[in-house]
Amino acid sequence: MHMTRTLPxxxxxxxxxxxxxxxxxxxxxxxxxxxxxxxxxxxxxRGDPQDLADVTQAPLSAVVKIxxxxxxxxxxxxxxxxxxxxxxxxxxxxxxxxxxxxDDGFVSKNRSGELPANPDFRVLVTTAFDNVTTQxxxxxxxxxxxxxxxxxxxxxxxxxxxxxxxxxxxxxVANMNxxxxxxxxxxxxxxxxxxxxxxxRAIGNYGDEIDxxxxxxxxxxxxxxxxxxxRDGKPADYSADNVPYRAPAFLKVATDGPQDGxxxxxxxxxxxxxxxRTATEFxxxxxxxxxxxxxxxDALIDTIEQAGKAxxxxxxxxxxxxxxxxxxxxxxxGELEGLLRSDAVHLRSEDERGMLAATHGTQQQRIAQLQKIxxxxxxxxxxxxxxxxxxxQTQLMxxxxxxxxxxxxxxxxxxxxxxxxxxxxxxxxxxxxxQVQRRYDADTEKALLTTLLGRYQQLPDAxxxxxxxxxxxxxxxxxxxxxxxxxAGTTLGTEAERLSRFAAAREGKPLADDPLIALAARLVxxxxxxxxxxxxxxxxxxxxxxxxxxxxxxxxxxxxxATYPDANSTLRVSFGRVTPLLPRDAVAFAPVTTxxxxxxxxTGQVPFDAPRPLLDAIAKGDFGSTADPALKxxxxxxxxxxxxxxxxxxxxxxxxxxxxxxxxxxxxWEAVSASWWYDPSMKRAIHVDARYIRWxxxxxxxxxxxLQEMQLPAE
Length: 715
Hints:
alpha+beta, 7-stranded antiparallel beta sheet
C-alpha cells in the first residue's frame, strides 16, 4: 500500500469529524473517511469505511480522471463510463462530413470499430497518494515572495521527477489547505482512448442550456469509452496493435435503482471550491469577478454562434468549445445569483470577523499581510481574465504562444523549466498541436480575438501591457488590420508546419519565420514578466494562507462545524441520500424523473427534439427489467444531496453495496454557488439513472455486446 497518515492540518481535526460532519456536506479526502465510519453507517453504507481510505483498492481504484471530468471502469477490459459532455470533444473530433456523431450518436459494433480520441485526451488512474509536506517546505522556510514560490516549485519538480523515473506514470504535487500540506499523487497516464458508444445529442444533451442546472431533468448524459495500452501492458500512443487496458478494479452496475431516502455515495475529481477563502475574496467574486465572466462569456458565445450561422463546418469545429462556454457562462450566472440570494458576502464577513476576534499575535499579523497581497492581485483581474482567454479560446494563437514558450524553456535544464514545458509535457503539447486541425476556422478565430482584444483595448492604462498595445493598436481599425495581416500570412493552419516548429522548439532552436510566431516572440516575454509578478504574490500567499487556515479550522471547531480541504482536482468522496428538492414556498420536486417527462417536453425542435426511436420505444412501453417497480415505468434521472462541483461530471454514484446506480452530471440552479457557499437545504446533485442507460443499450440504440461485457441483463 502507498498510503500515509492524514494531512497534518486535517489530522488535527480528524477526531472531531465524527461529531461535527453532516452526511451531505463535505468533499472528503479518502484518508478522512475512516474517522467518518459512524456517519457513513448511519447514512446506510454497508461496506467497510476502511476500504475507502485506500485509493489502490476497489472501489476507488476504479474511479479515474477523464479529460476535465471523472469516469469509472465498468468492465475488466478498460470499458469506461463517463458523461456525454465530458466526452463531447471526442465525439466532435470524430464528427465529419457523412458521419455526424454529434447529432446521430455512435455505436461501435465491435472493438475494431472503436474510434480514437483526439491525441491530447487522457485518462489518469490514481495509484498512490502520499504526504510530502516536509520535503516540499524544507527549503522554503524563512523565505518570502518569489523565493518562497521557487523553493516550493523546485521541491515539487524534484519530487515529480523522482516519481516519474519509474516510467509509465504521471505524477503531481497537490497543494492542500492552501500551502499547509502537500501530497504526491501518482497516476497511470493512459493515452490511447477510444469512443465506444455515444447517444445522439438529443438524448445526451436533451434540453441543452434551457435545462442546464435545472430540475426536473431528462438527459441521458453518458458515453462509453475504452482505454488501450501496448501489448506489453504499458501506456502507449494510439496504435491498431494496442490491446484493451486491464483495469485494476471495475464497478458493478446495479440492477435495482434509487428510491427516496436511499444511501448514495460519489467518488470523483472535483475541480476547485472556494469555501475557505477570505471575506475579501467573497466580496470580489460577487462584486466584480462573476459579472465580468458572464459578460465576456456572453460575447464569446455570440461570436461563435454568429460564425456558425454562415459556416456549417465552423459550427461543427467549434461545437465542443461553444458547449463549454455556455456551461461556464450559466455556471457563473447561477453562482452570482446564488451568492446574492444567500447573502454569502455578509455572512462570510461576519464569520471572518468572529474568527479574527479570536485570533491573536503573529497569526493575526500574517492574516493582515495576506489581505494586503490579495488586494494587490485583484487589481489586475480584468486583464488577467482576457489574456488568459486569448491563450485558451484560440487555436493558432495558442499554438504560436505555446511553441515560443516551449522554445524558451527548452534552452534551460529540464528541472528549471516552467511547469507545463518540461520534457514530460512534450507529448501533451504535441497532441494539442495535432488536434488543432479539426477545431480551427480562420474567420472564427479572428472574430474571437476581435472580441477579446477589443475588450482589452478598453482597459484602463494601469492594466495595459505595452507590447500588446504595440501589436494590436488602441483602436478597432488597427486591431482588424493587425489580425487580417497575421492570419493572411500564417502557415500554422497546416499540421506539418506546426509540428516542424515543435521539433525545433523542443530542442530550444529558432523557429521558422511566420507572422504568428514573430508575434509570439514579442508577446511571450511580456507574459513571462506578468507570470513573475504573479509568482511573487503566490509565494507570499503560500507562506501566509496557512495561518488563515489554522485560524479558520480552530474557529469552526469551536462552532462545531466540520473542516475539510477545498477541492483541488484530487480524488474526493461525498456521501448522503436520494433527496427531493423544495426550492421555494409551495414548490416541491420529487427526486426521480421518468420518460414521461421526455414526451411532455418534446417539441420537435432543438433542444427538445427527442429522437423518433426514443419516442417510439417510450410509446411501446417495453421497459423490461429496467422499469422502476414502484413507478411502473422507466426512470431517467435522480437527485441526491451529495456535495459536488465542476470536475465531478462523470463521477459514479454508488449505492449502499458499492454498486454503480447512476452517473453524476449536473447540479440544480439553486446550488450552483455551492463551490463558494454551501446551503444544505438547497444543494442537490443530478444524476443519470443507470437503469435508463441500460434501457437505451437494450431497447433503443442497442449495444447487446456492452450489456454482456458488463454482465447485465439483455433486456
